[in-house]
Amino acid sequence: MSLEDKLHTDMVAALKARESDLVTTLRMAIGALKNEKVAGKQARELSEAEEVAVLQREVRTRKDSAQAYTDGNRPELAAKELAEAEILARYLPSMLSDAELDAVVAEEVAAAEASAGEKPTMRQMGAIIKAVNGRVAGRAEGAAVAAKVKAALA
């Protein structure tokens, strides 16, 4: 069952239970997935990783909006956005802990060191970040990965 199918079945259940906030949030998520499917020159099916990336983008958008509402002294709208982010976060894979991310970064730095024959420098940082992002596949924030790699190379 794809992520979109799971969202759809949960939306139907929420409709039957008359949970309007949940229905609204799931409809927006399904709409975002459908928009991503038809973006570009030709409609296509999304992979699991692409679906997760779309949902992560939606969660990030909700959190950014909540911050803007908080800054604008609109706590009721901020609470609504955070509730939507919480609902969408249920459908995302669990995030890696700091220790797990450190282990992946250490393995990739060691692999880069083995292939180059010397300790990698900051010039190889981009390649190492790309390798780590390929392995963690949406289970860690890009900024956190970059910070860990930079610390490992320093």
Automatic annotation (TrEMBL):
Taxonomy, superkingdom: Bacteria
GO molecular function annotations of the record: carbon-nitrogen ligase activity, with glutamine as amido-N-donor
SUPFAM superfamilies for the chain: GatB/YqeY motif
Gene3D superfamilies: 1.10.10.410, Uncharacterised protein YqeY/AIM41 PF09424, N-terminal domain
PANTHER family tied to this protein: ALTERED INHERITANCE OF MITOCHONDRIA PROTEIN 41, MITOCHONDRIAL
Protein name (Swiss-Prot/TrEMBL): GatB/YqeY domain-containing protein
